[in-house]
Amino acid sequence: QVQLVESGGGLVQAGGSLRLSCAASGSIFSMYTMGWYRQAPGKQRELVAAITRGTSTDYPDSVKGRFTISRDNAKNTVDLQMNSLKPEDTAVYYCNAVRVLGPVRYNYWGQGTQVTVSS
Q1: Which residues of 15-26 are buried (b: 16+ CB within 10 A; e: fewer)?
Q2: Alpha carbons 70 and 37: distance in angstroms, whole number
Q3: Coil, helix or strand for 64?
Q4: Alpha carbons 79 and 67: distance in angstroms, whole number
Q5: pLDDT given at position 62
Q6: What is the pLDDT of residues 62-89, one digit of tens each?
Q7: What order of strands is seen across the sheet that includes strand 3-7?
Q8: Is the pLDDT reported for residue 30 higher than 80?
């Protein structure tokens, strides 16, 4: 079991920055691929950043160059630095932890944190 708690959301003007943080507990954090997803009203949840156990990162084109994901395995945290924010970045942001062990996929979600970007 992994428990995930997000923090750092809020209201920011377009062009501004926010840093989200996710604190994990309950299992071996370093064994998990960590990700940040977002879900806007009426839209599907989408991946915005992922970082593997080996710290390889992945971003969709919509946030590439603006968002940066990082992890600290000693502190069991994963952060998302968001720069040059746009109104279309407004959404609830969720922290995710996933690990595949043989035929079993372990997948955990945080409760989410609201990010609102005003124009």
Answers
A1: eeebebbbbbee
A2: 14
A3: coil
A4: 10
A5: 96
A6: 999 999 999 999 999 999 999 999 999 9
A7: 3-7, 18-25, 77-82, 67-72
A8: yes
